[in-house]
Amino acid sequence: MEWAGAKRFVIVLLLILNIILAGLNIQQKRDNTMTSAQEKAIFEVLSQNGITLYTDLNIDTKPMYRLEAKVPSYSKEDLEAAIFDGEKTKVSVGTKTVYKTENEILTLEGDKGTFVDKTVEKGLINLNKEAAIKLAEHKMQQMEPIFGEYELCYSFKEEDGWRIDFCSIYKDEVVFSNHFSFFVSDQGIYQLDFTYCEITGMTQEKKEICMEDEALMTFMQEWNKRDSAEDAAIQKLEIGYDLMEQGQAVMGTGLFLEPCYRIYLMEESEPYLVNAYTCQIVKKDVK
């Protein structure tokens, strides 16, 4: 009888614990979900401050890990196949590593790289955005054995051509800091700038992140610091990972990537970045 009573007590205790956990899960989901009133309020506040939102908001958030990364090392053969279309290169090593053919040059320094094709002239007359994206996608596919999965993240028309940007993907999450910018003219791709770190894993603990309305309020405060009455039009808002360390990353350095919101404006090629852990604007070094 005593054993049967003990079992009943344990069963009842487990049921109570399950009910408590279910309640906590429901409460946490509510805490991480934007209400329709919050969504309406952020649209109104932004509008009052001259900011128009042309994108839907994600009403749910979830805790996210930090990612661990390092500056990669490349083989000459891989770079020749992926970037130089198989053409052999001459290499010079110093503070920067430079790969050259007669008309093309690739410069690597830490996590950054720049490729230039001197045979392709700058200038934009006839090339439309779709054709520019197609050229850039073909080259990005060629580079996939080195840099892995990617997705198109932005396109922007400049004076000398189209700028087509890609970001890499890790476990279905966008990695903003693994960033590839193709500059495409009527004659083809004349330049590629990229920043890339190899993702080696993730930290064991997830941390809560701020919601999109909080990130937008942070952006609004930053925008209002300008000495200008210019309005802003937000065309894209997305969550992903970015490198928080500033300065030059070197071989063997352990790096950490944290979840961030990227806010793209219609008339600007560089997005605003908000750290999703701290909900603070991240000041990035722009080329």
Structure report:
This protein is α+β, with helices and mostly antiparallel strands. 28% of the residues lie in helices and 35% in strands. It contains five helices and 15 strands. The protein has helices spanning 2-31, 36-48, 76-82, 129-147, 212-223, and strands spanning 51-53, 67-70, 90-93, 97-100, 104-109, 112-117, 150-157, 162-170, 173-185, 188-195, 198-202, 232-243, 254-265, 272-275, 280-281. The strands form two sheets. Strands 3-4-5-6-10-9-8-7 form an eight-stranded antiparallel beta sheet, covered by helices on one side. Strands 1, 2, 11, 12, 13, 14 and 15 form a seven-stranded mixed beta sheet that branches. 25% of the residues are buried. Mean pLDDT is 85; it is low at 20-30.
Biggest sheet overview: 8 strands, antiparallel
What portion of the residues fall into strands of 2 or more residues? 25-35%
Distance between the termini: 77 Å
The residue fraction in helices comes out at 25-40%
Q: What structural class do helix, strand and pairing data support? A: alpha+beta
What does this entry show, briefly?
This protein is of the alpha+beta class. It has helices spanning 2-31, 36-48, 76-82, 129-147, 212-223, and strands at 51-53, 67-70, 90-93, 97-100, 104-109, 112-117, 150-157, 162-170, 173-185, 188-195, 198-202, 232-243, 254-265, 272-275, 280-281.
